[in-house]
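Tokens in:
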């Protein structure tokens, strides 16, 4: 079960590492990750550890940082209804209800045998992948039962102005090409009466505090000044999106998980691209589809990385499955994992770390605030400096000052050349000094030989090191 604790006031990297290690060593705890930027501790634990976990976490945190306020972040509950077609066994129903209810992250589980349904209340992160687990449990008791998720119907709001056009086919096809390398499509919903400009305005207002590439794309498209004095209650919900109060209206902007967690009835967009859903005052406003363009030198960079000895290239992305597969195929990546939250990226990185060959290193390249925990966890964290967030740059070991992926190949080439020169200088220095040490012991070396053995070696080493300037 995943639990998130807010550590308000935590600002010590050294203490964070100790807290993460000590909590991770508690009985029943599978993983522990501290996000210093967001001041959170994410713990994955067995159900047996739940009862005393909060108290143990607070004790460990206060042993290192007594002034830090520790509280548990409650995840919004989502209702999922599953159709169990063919279920007619009361005994099996009771077992299914009990086993599903005991799953981590599940608040309640109720089987209605008459309607052949299973209603589950669970956290958003658990609910997203619950169908497969429910199917397995049901089939362990009733193999012939058909399990499917029931789509909850939304009621359309009353239109106040029948003349207000939503989006016609021409609007849906129109694209706006941005300087930051993205294409944005505005998509409407037949249930609403919002104009395209208003969808974009709400999105721009919500993203005005962010320096994420998607935020910059939306703000560049909006192209108007934004008065942030009108806003309050800004909250960045990790892995979901943003919530902000705009002139008394609560504006939500983010992915489908945010809409589900806030119980917003929305029209899912099936087009390939990053979906950015917008809602205001509990009503769905529209969706902005952002299709990232692959940087021109990305494919070449991946090919060059393999040439210089990189064994495996893997993409970890929060985008949907279709985007992930499309980009991975285009770039020739060995594997990809899509629809990942920040903590899930860390889990995948740890999985890859266990699979790596002994003696090899695992590097991660990222630029967003959600990449910071992964950059810190990798053997070598590399941040893209041009569009990279401050959190990503701070967590990284290496920062590329432009957003050209090909610079990564150059960085590795320079690093290898630097290591070769360092080793050469060590061998030269030790070799020459050893020779003159022996000659001096035998009485065959005078003052000038000693000077050469000291100053001469320094000059040779400096001249040799200057070769790196040609790189």
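Residues out:
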């Amino acid at each position: 079960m995943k639990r998130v604790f807010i550590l308000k006031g935590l600002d010590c990297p050294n203490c964070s590492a100790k807290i993460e290690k000590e909590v991770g060593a508690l009985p029943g705890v599978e993983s522990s990750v501290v996000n210093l930027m967001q001041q959170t501790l994410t713990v994955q634990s067995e159900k047996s550890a739940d009862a005393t976990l909060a108290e143990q976490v607070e004790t460990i945190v206060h042993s290192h940082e007594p002034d830090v306020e520790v509280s548990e972040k409650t995840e919004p509950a989502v209702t999922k209804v599953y159709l169990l077609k063919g279920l007619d066994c009361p005994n099996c129903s009771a077992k299914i209800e009990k086993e599903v209810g005991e799953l981590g992250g599940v608040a309640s589980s109720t089987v209605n045998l008459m309607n052949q349904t299973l209603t589950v209340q669970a956290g958003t992160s658990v609910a997203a992948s619950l169908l497969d687990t429910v199917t397995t449990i049901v089939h362990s008791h009733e193999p012939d039962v058909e399990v499917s998720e029931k789509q909850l119907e939304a009621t359309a709001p009353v239109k106040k102005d029948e003349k207000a056009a939503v989006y016609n086919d021409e609007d849906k096809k129109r694209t706006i090409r941005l300087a930051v390398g993205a294409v944005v499509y505005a998509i409407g919903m037949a249930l609403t009466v919002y104009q395209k400009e208003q969808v974009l305005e709400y999105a721009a207002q919500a993203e005005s505090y962010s320096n994420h590439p998607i935020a910059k794309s939306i703000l560049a498209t909006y192209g108007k000044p934004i008065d942030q004095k009108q806003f309050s209650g800004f909250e960045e919900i990790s892995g979901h999106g943003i919530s902000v109060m705009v002139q008394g209206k609560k504006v939500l902007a983010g992915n489908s998980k945010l809409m589900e967690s806030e119980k917003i009835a929305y029209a899912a967009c099936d087009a390939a691209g990053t979906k950015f859903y917008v809602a205001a005052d509990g009503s769905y406003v529209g969706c902005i589809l952002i299709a990232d363009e692959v940087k021109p030198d990305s494919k070449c960079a991946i090919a060059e990385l393999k040439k210089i000895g990189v064994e495996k290239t893997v993409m970890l992305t929060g985008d949907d499955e279709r985007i992930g597969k499309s980009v991975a195929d285009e770039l020739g990546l060995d594997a990809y994992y899509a629809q990942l939250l920040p903590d899930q990226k860390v889990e995948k990185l740890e999985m890859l770390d266990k699979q790596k060959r002994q003696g090899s290193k695992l590097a991660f390249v990222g630029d967003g605030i959600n990449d910071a925990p992964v950059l810190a966890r990798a053997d070598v964290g590399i941040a893209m400096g041009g569009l990279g967030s401050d959190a990503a740059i701070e967590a990284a070991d290496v920062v590329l000052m432009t957003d050209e992926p090909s610079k990564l190949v150059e960085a590795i080439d320079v690093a290898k050349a630097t290591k070769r020169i360092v080793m050469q200088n060590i061998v030269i220095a030790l070799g020459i000094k050893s020779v003159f040490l022996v000659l001096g012991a035998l009485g065959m070396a005078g003052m000038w030989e000693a000077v050469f053995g000291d100053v001469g070696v320094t000059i040779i080493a400096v001249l040799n090191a200057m070769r790196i300037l040609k790189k």
